[in-house]
């Protein structure tokens, strides 16, 4: 290997949100799960971890900075990950390493490989606030695994390295929709992530993360799932009997762009996870009253849409509602939901909304397509049940005054 | 049968709280459950339904008053119960009826049997407020079944009649700890309640009912369990695989006076019920933030004692049924009153029922629990214990209907 003072790599990795949940390990040390899981990797424009790793023969020890603060590297999962990536790097035949180095060197003189024996300095940060309850261990460990793999020249299947840091981190090793297969082998070699669809396959999907104010300190997921494995009699049944079927259905829904089916599976699996937490002893509560209000709003919204669609379909002949308007209503629920959510909790001025002034016009059109054929009292009743009664009433009122 | 203008009977029956829960039916019409269940009948000094039934050849139709208000008798479950008790009464051999009548007449000239063909006027009331979320269908239907059985002379196994009104009502047909066996037969003849222990067997048990303030209107348990049966994949597993074992353990714990084991089973089964509700689609939430705070308090108390001295169970609503024994009653009550203090205006009626002292918690215990007192979280606390099954009342002042079958005495 050529003499160099140091090698430096910087990478980013996404956060992921599980749709079919991982909850419970069959092996604590290797982090092998009881069941397979499925997730969506979220866009790095909004959420990502960034990691820089520098390897040098001059370093006497590994060092770590997280969000600017130096931390100990002696944490067991971090050690397991570091050990694993170095182990795989050391396994590479020497000729492979040399051949690759030549290729890499010609591309970018800084982008050389480091021998796994060199110590590393690592710095990682997130572009989203910690302590807002947004889990960063998945993106953080995935980023670390990926960065070090680039640094030491480890190629091929990398999710197994990320998994040693945090189970869900292996799913952040791919974009789009990702499955973490639970695997059969005791050494965990087959407990890896695979991409189900790339992000380009279903670009219409949207995810709103509602960050809820919460005073209660939550039980960590590692501790929580350990308690569930030890005490929940329903968990085994879920893991062995129920999840394989749910996973199959969820993947089929994704491949078919079937949002209603996908969404229902997501809601049911989220609820089943929290049911397992309640079936744990002592019971674990992650959802609070606001979480439940959000769930009620979603159910009420779906119910309202189904009813409105029915009404629209029956009235379409009578009121000459174009097919386009019907179609645009069912597809652009993004703005509907944003609007309803904002009325419930937030009430910003329209300029506060990220989507800007065009949102308002679009909303108006959307509501217009919905309100016109229905009796206004109908929409009013639905909203009264679920959100602040004053606000949507005033919107409808002012809209109608504008001479619709 | 002797000529009489009317026959009048008044009885009372207890409320019961399930320890191993009933949730889900295998037959909606006959009210047959997916699994067996276990409950404690609570003492009638604190909670009971009272029913007066008057039968007369002069009545042209059945009539019903609930808590003083006339109601329709056309409700399907009420009809099923009335029909069942009359059917059983009609089956009795005539000599049996006549022989019994002679015996009964000599005891109390008013306490005669009525032929099931006579119409009845029924009046029922509870000694606890409705709308405080305390389920009265169990005590109400049990009382009705028992009263009509006395009136028409139906003897033997009576819980199956109560069951036609409301599943959990069959467990209120006995005192102490009661099991409702789920049964195998399609006609439900073996889906009946049996007494596991009488109330005198474990007199130290105490139950504190914490009546929680709640704005949310809860889904009824009939509707809730129907939804769970339709959508929860975990429910079948619970009913067929898990409950039989839990029931066996709970009965063993009761017979051994093993409070820690009993209490833990109660907490776990309550939580599993609510887990099933969350696994239902759309999900059902019966517990609110106060319910959860109470659960935390109980866990923290047990932790601080390094032993299970308290337990809890919740039905289809936010009210907590906190379990303990006489030894810890005052201490636990003091702890609850400290962390869930009354609004100052109603502090006199805040702790009701059994006359217990409240031991204020030590500073050490307060810190160990580590949360802030929450005033206004509870409406009141009712202290009770296991109690007897349905009783006939011979006190003339207790009747809710006069001898002509109208409200008043």
Summed up:
Two copies of one chain form a homodimer. Chain A has 404 residues and is an alpha+beta fold.
Indicate how many domains the architecture of chain A comprises. 1
Largest sheet of chain A: 5 strands, mixed
The parts of chain A where pLDDT drops under 50 for at least 5 residues are: 316-331, 342-404
Determine the CATH topology of chain A. Ribosomal Protein S5, domain 2
Radius of gyration of chain A, in angstroms, nearest whole number? 25 Å
What's the multimeric state?
homodimer
**Judging by the overall fold, what is the CATH architecture of chain A?**
2-Layer Sandwich
Largest interface summary: A-B, 28 and 27 residues
Individual helix count of chain A: 13
Query: Can you count the beta strands of chain A?
Result: 11
Elements of chain A, N to C (H/E): EEEEEEEEHHEHHEEHHHHHHHHH
Strand content of chain A: 5-15%
- Which of globular, elongated, flat, extended, rod-shaped describes the shape of chain A? globular
GO cellular component, one term (chain B): cytosol
Keywords (chain B): ATP-binding, Cholesterol biosynthesis, Cholesterol metabolism, Lipid biosynthesis, Lipid metabolism, Lyase, Nucleotide-binding, Steroid biosynthesis, Steroid metabolism, Sterol biosynthesis, Sterol metabolism
Pathway (chain B): Steroid biosynthesis; cholesterol biosynthesis
GO molecular function (chain B): ATP binding; diphosphomevalonate decarboxylase activity
């Amino acid at each position: 290997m050529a003499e160099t003072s140091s090698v430096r790599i910087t990478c980013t990795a996404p956060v992921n949100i599980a749709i079919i949940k991982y909850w419970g390990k069959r092996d604590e040390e290797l982090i092998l799960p009881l069941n397979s899981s499925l997730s969506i990797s979220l866009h790095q424009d909004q959420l990502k971890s960034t990691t820089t790793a520098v390897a040098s023969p001059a370093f006497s020890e590994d060092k770590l900075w997280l969000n600017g603060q130096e931390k100990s590297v002696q944490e067991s999962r971090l050690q397991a990950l570091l050990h694993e990536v170095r182990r795989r790097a050391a396994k590479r035949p020497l000729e492979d390493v040399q051949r690759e180095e030549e290729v890499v060197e010609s591309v970018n003189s800084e982008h050389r490989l480091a021998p796994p024996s060199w110590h590393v300095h690592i710095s990682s940060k997130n572009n989203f606030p910690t302590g807002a309850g947004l889990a960063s261990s998945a993106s953080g460990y995935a980023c670390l695994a990926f960065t070090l793999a680039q640094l030491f020249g480890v190629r091929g299947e990398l999710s197994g390295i990320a998994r040693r840091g945090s189970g869900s981190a292996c799913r952040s090793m791919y974009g789009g929709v990702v499955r973490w297969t639970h695997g059969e082998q005791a050494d965990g070699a087959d407990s890896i992530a695979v991409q189900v669809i790339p992000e380009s396959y279903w670009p219409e999907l949207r995810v709103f993360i509602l960050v809820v104010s919460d005073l209660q300190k939550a039980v960590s997921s590692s501790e929580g799932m350990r308690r569930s494995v030890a005490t929940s009699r329903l968990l085994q049944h879920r893991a062995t009997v129920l999840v394989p079927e749910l996973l199959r259905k969820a993947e089929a829904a994704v491949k078919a762009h079937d949002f209603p089916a996908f969404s229902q599976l997501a809601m049911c699996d989220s609820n089943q996870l929290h049911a397992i937490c309640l079936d744990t002893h002592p019971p674990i509560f992650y959802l609070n009253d606001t979480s439940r209000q959000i769930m009620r709003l979603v159910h009420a919204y779906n119910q309202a849409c189904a009813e409105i669609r029915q009404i629209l379909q029956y009235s379409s002949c009578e009121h000459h509602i174009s097919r386009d308007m019907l179609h645009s209503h069912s597809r652009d629920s993004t703005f509907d939901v944003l609007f309803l959510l904002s009325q419930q909790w937030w009430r910003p001025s329209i300029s506060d909304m990220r989507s800007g002034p065009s949102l308002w016009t679009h909303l108006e059109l959307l509501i217009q397509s919905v309100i016109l054929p229905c009796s206004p009292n109908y929409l009013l009743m639905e909203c009264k049940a679920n959100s602040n009664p004053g606000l949507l009433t005033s919107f409808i009122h002012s809209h109608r005054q504008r001479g619709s």
